[in-house]
Every structure is written in C-alpha cells, then in structure tokens.
C-alpha cells in the first residue's frame, strides 16, 4: 500500500466561483419574484416559495395561476402543503445525462431532487471519468441517489448512506429506472456519523467523499443532526477516511448562515498536510427568460 504523502496545506482559491445551473429538457426556472419561483418539471409547472426572490415577476400573473401545483408554506421551515390545480400528480420520470429518476411531491416543498445540484453532478461525472482508475466513493446524506447514480454511471464504486429508509427505497427505484441496478452500489440506511465512525474503526478507506448534509435532521434511531454543531467533527472523520491516493472531497450545504468561504476554511483545516486545491462558492439557478439568478446552496471542493 502506498504511504500517505505529507504535503503542503491545501490552497484555497482566492476568489469564489459561482456555478450556474441552466434549464435542461426536464427542468427550467421559468420565472421568479415576490418571494416565489415558477419552475417547469417536464410538462408540469410548479410554484414554490423562495424568499430570496425580492424582485417582481417577469411574466404576467396568468402564467403563475396556471401552474399545476403550488406549495403553501406553514410557519415551520420547509413545511406546508401542496395544492393541485387538478388531481394530485403522481411521480414522474426526469432525466439528466445517463441517469433517470422520479420527481415526487414530498410532504415538504422539495420534489425529491435538487435541480441546482446539476452543476455538481457535471463536475462529479468529469472527475470520475478523467481519473484513469475506478474510484471508491462514499456519498453521505445521499437522499434519493441522483449523485450516487451519476458516479456509478461514470464508472465508480459507490457507498450510498442516508438515514431515511424511504429515501433509500426511492434511490433504489431510481437505480433500476436508470438501468444501473447491477452497478457496484451499496445502499446503507444509517446515521452518517455512526457509519463513518465504524468505517474508521474497520480501517476502510475511500478515494472520494461527497458530503451534502442538511441544516437539521434525524437519524433512524432518533439521532439529531445540527449542521453548525456536528459538521466540523464529521468533516474531520471524513478526512481520516480518505485513501492514501485520494481524488476529491465535495462538501455542499444549505443554510442561511453558512458560506462557501466557511466551508473552504473547514476543509483546509481538516485536510491540513494533504496539499491540493479548494474551490468554493455558490450554486445558483438561472432563470430562462430574464437570466436572473437565485443562490441555492454553498459548496467547497477539495481536489488532491
């Protein structure tokens, strides 16, 4: 086994990079404004709250009232209820690259995938295909599996971890839908911290890690996850899981009080002595009609 190299501290890019996701055949940010966004998923249009849209909509109100589904928020973040123009809409198939997956109206405002992550999916696909070897990848907080399937389709071995049995079930369905059910993907329903701690004790290593935690969550046995309390320790444990010849670590976070600079600083601290570079910034959705942009999440990417 190759000994781990002792290198200089990671270099943090001096300037942030904004990663812009534009619409594709199965998704489009049609319009936005007055604290909401109008999106197209396949042939359906959906209205969801988005407090960052401080401007006025560009399209007439008729385009908004004709939406097939509207999410009415409640007092708690992300909670509320869906209101349909006609009958409730069943899960539908979306496609990105070689991956197919179901969109679903969840009890929250999410639709079982996050379209702005297409910028990260493209980066993952490129990094894996250009690696010149088969990477062993750990995807923590993997949700419905789109990132895991992008990695598997590009030739990686993937361990997908999520605390929700329902999400794991949906991810498996998406693997079958994509024709990737026979690829080397391990589906693990467990609290991310417990899984990582056990892998460290076992001496398991991964060539790359995807870390996409929520701001708040619960594990299958009631474990509580709080981003600002728990992320620093988990990032340190993830650094310990990296192989002697690692490829990358991708960290993404949704939280009003976080920033790409903070995520980059955390990775630089936890990856001290491993060299490499850290790119950081924001993921945004680009409106098709007027090219206005909505910031959706922050990221930091360490590349060895």
How many distinct beta strands? Answer: 18
**First and last CA, distance:** 18 Å
Average of pLDDT: 94
Percent strand: 25-35%
Total helices: the number is 7
Give the helix level as a range of percent.
10-25%
Q: What's the Cα radius of gyration?
A: 19 Å
The SSE order reads EEEEEHEEEEHEHEHEHEEEHEHEE
**SS-based class:** alpha/beta
Low-confidence regions: none
Shape: globular
Reported for the largest beta sheet, the result is: 9 strands, mixed
Question: Could you give a short description of this structure?
Answer:
Strand 14 (216-218) and strand 15 form a beta hairpin.
Q: Please, could you describe this protein's structure?
A:
With 304 residues, the protein is an alpha/beta fold. It is built from 7 helices and 18 strands. The strands form 4 sheets. Strands 1, 2, 10, 11, 12, 13, 16, 17 and 18 form a 9-stranded mixed β-sheet that branches. Strands 3-4-5-6-7 form a 5-stranded mixed β-sheet, with no helix packed on it. Helix 2 runs parallel beside helix 3 and helix 5 packs parallel to helix 6.
């Amino acid at each position: 086994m190759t000994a781990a190299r002792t290198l200089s501290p990671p270099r943090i890019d001096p300037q942030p990079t904004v990663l812009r996701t534009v619409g594709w055949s199965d998704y489009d940010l049609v319009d936005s404004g007055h604290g909401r966004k109008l999106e197209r998923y396949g042939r359906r249009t959906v209205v969801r709250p988005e407090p960052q849209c401080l401007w006025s909509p560009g399209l007439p109100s008729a385009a908004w009232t004709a939406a097939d589904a509207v999410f009415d928020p409640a007092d708690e973040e992300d909670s509320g209820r869906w209101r349909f123009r006609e009958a409730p809409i069943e899960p539908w198939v979306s496609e990105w690259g070689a991956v197919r997956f179901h969109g679903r109206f969840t009890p929250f405002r999410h639709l079982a995938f996050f379209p702005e992550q297409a910028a990260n999916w493209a980066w993952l696909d490129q990094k894996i295909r250009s690696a010149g070897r088969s990477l062993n990848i750990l995807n923590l907080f993997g949700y419905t599996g789109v990132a895991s399937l992008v990695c598997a389709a590009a030739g990686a071995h993937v361990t997908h971890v999520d605390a929700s049995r329902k999400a794991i079930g949906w991810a498996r369905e998406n693997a079958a839908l994509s024709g990737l059910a026979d690829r080397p993907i391990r589906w693990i329903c467990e609290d991310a911290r417990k899984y990582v701690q056990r892998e460290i004790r076992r001496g398991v290593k991964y060539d790359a890690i995807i870390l996409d935690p929520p701001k708040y969550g619960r594990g299958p046995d009631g474990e509580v996850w709080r981003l600002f309390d728990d992320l620093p320790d988990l990032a340190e444990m993830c650094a310990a899981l990296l192989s002697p010849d690692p490829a990358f670590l991708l960290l993404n976070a949704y939280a009003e009080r976080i920033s790409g600079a903070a995520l980059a600083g955390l990775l630089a601290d936890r990856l001290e002595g491993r060299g490499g570079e850290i790119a950081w910034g924001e993921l945004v959705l680009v409106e098709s009609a007027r090219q206005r942009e909505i910031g959706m999440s922050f990221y930091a990417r360490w590349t060895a």
